[in-house]
Amino acid sequence: MTSDPRESGPVPERDWDRAVELVSAADEVALACHISPDADALGSMLAVGMALRAEGKRVTASFGERRFRVPRLLRFLPGQELLVEPGAYPAMPELMMTFDVPIVDRLGTLAANAGKARELVVVDHHASNTGFGTLNLVDPEAAATAVLAEELLVRLGLPIGRRVATCLYAGLVTDTGSFRHSSTTPRAHAMAARLLATGLNPEEIARELWDRSPFGYLQVLGAALDRAVLEPSTGPGLVWTFVTRQDRVAQDLPYDEVEGIIDVVRRTDEADVAVILKEDDDGAWQVSTRSKGAVDVARVCAALGGGGHARAAGFTSHLPVEQTMESLRALL
What is the C-alpha separation between 314 and 303, in angstroms, rounded? Predict the structure, then answer.
């Protein structure tokens, strides 16, 4: 019996005990994170994977995208030798663990594998998590999934060296916005201190995550800012823009390179909510939303088939830009 992940609070001890039992007994563990992985998803998965492999377990790690590639800004993360193409992932895993995945659809092509897993352990911190695992280690109060990944490793009695700590730290600093978001708690800072004590290089991690981009990014950013729209009369105030696939193609810029544009747009004083629509390589619009606190964007995005956190969430739209915005405005 497991807890309902939608109930806010720490993971029950019985669930941690069961997780330790399952992982300790397994010879092979299949790990997965969400599609278009961010640092928290990929970092948490790789951290656990490296620690388990060092313990002698067979480990497979992946994320379910047809165009399987690690985003450029995350290629510094250690442990990527664990990654396999989705097609090489176990079809019916004995034990499968997911990281930072609130709904099964976010597993992409690996959702089918999850459905056939004998045991499915979900490690996540989204309040919107649907509890799709046979065991759900979900704590909405945790600053990042990396917090839960570290807790699991500690309970398994596995050492956390510099390589593992680098992955966990990347997840922690990104999901707390470099310790600027409301998720920044004494617990988060205490974890950062433990990880820093392993000898990881915080300056190098920060440079890789935030201080590097190809010149083409500036061109696409300029185009997005040029077409930005401010709607102060929409609810608490809305600012939005979009990036087309053609914008990126013209600059030879992959999709994952435009993730940071939302952090520029959200600075607008006159708007509580910021939105950016990014056309992916398949022609769908990936919509990112941010809130300064007046609006729970997780509820808005959930109503449109997505999810996330109260101040940072997203969804996918197959409608044109203006129709997508009409749907979103109605909910705001």
Answer: 11
pLDDT tens digits for 175-205? Answer: 999 998 888 999 999 999 999 999 999 999 9
- 322 CB contacts (<8 Å, ≥6 apart)? none
Q: Which tokens belong to 63?
A: 């994320």
Give the DSSP H or E segment for 312.
strand 312-317
Cα separation, 317 vs 151, whole angstroms: 36
End-to-end CA distance of the chain: 38
Mean pLDDT score of the chain, rounded to an integer?
Answer: 94
Neighbour-count burial of 184, counting CB atoms closer than 10 A to its CB (0-12 exposed, 13-18 middle, 19+ buried): middle
Q: Which helix (H) or strand (E) holds 230?
A: strand 229-231
Q: How far apart are CA 134 and CA 130, in angstroms?
A: 12
13, 119, 278, 302 from 284: Cα distances, Å: 41, 33, 8, 17
Rounded percentage of the chain residues whose pLDDT exceeds 70: 97
Cα 161 from Cα 129, distance rounded (Å): 30
Taking residue 120's Cβ as centre, other Cβ atoms within 10 Å add up to 22
Beta carbons of 219 and 252 less than 8 angstroms apart: no
Strand (E) or helix (H) holding 298: helix 297-303
- DSSP assignment, residue 283? S
Burial (0-12, 13-18, 19+ Cβ within 10 Å), 193: exposed
Residue among 222, 22, 14 at smallest CA distance from 119: 22
* Pair of tokens at residue 124: 């996540």
Ramachandran assignment for 8, one of left (phi > 0), alpha (psi -120 to 50 degrees), beta (any other): beta
What secondary structure does DSSP assign to 147-184, as a single string?
HHHHHHHHHHT----HHHHHHHHHHHHHHTTTTTSTT-
Q: Which tokens go with 242?
A: 């979009």
Whole-model pTM: value is: 0.90
